[in-house]
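Long-time lurker. I teach an intro course on protein structure, and each term I like to show students one example going from raw sequence to a predicted 3D structure in token notation. This year I'd like something fresh instead of my usual example. Would anyone be willing to generate the tokens for the chain below so I can use it in lecture? Attribution to the forum is fine with me.
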Amino acid sequence: MTRNSARSRRRWSTALALVGLAAVANLGMTCGPASPAPDTCDTPGPIADSGVTSIEIGGMVDGQFVPFVDDAVAPLVFGGQGSPMVVARLRVHGAGLPACLPQATQLEQLDGEVIASESGAMATEPAGADARLTGEILLVYFGESATQVRLRATVGDLSHEVVVWTDAVGVRDAGVDAPADASPDAP
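-- Reply from a regular --
Happy to contribute to a lecture. Here you go:
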């Protein structure tokens, strides 16, 4: 064996070892805690014409659904990848609503420009007589806090919208939180 061919084999061995280490390191980066169960579903059920009688857009507070009303505060939550977002849920009323409910939800500026949207079928759970509650709808928002935005949801042939203030929890947001001499939100 010549000196150059031995050197060449060592280079290839070193290169393959580095590729192998990179692959193992990549596995370590992608493995970790399991993702949360998806709130989406694959096979939306049918909704009869005029089957939806009302839609509420809101969030969960102490395990209970609380609908947003105009001028309410929608807290900005930071997701697992660090993006701020408005987390919404829909409570939909109507007879015979399916457990897999097709919906379209948008976060908009007041001039109508869409900031974020989520459309597709959402898994739901019963929420009282003739009502279903969706899982979380994550609407990424990189705008300023203490800004009014519109949430709009459509299910079947009915739509509902509400204008809310965005609020960064733990930060004093002018126009949303208490006066400047008060303490900011609780974390």
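Some talking points for your students: The first strand starts at residue 54 and ends at 61. The chain is about 15% helix and 40% strand.
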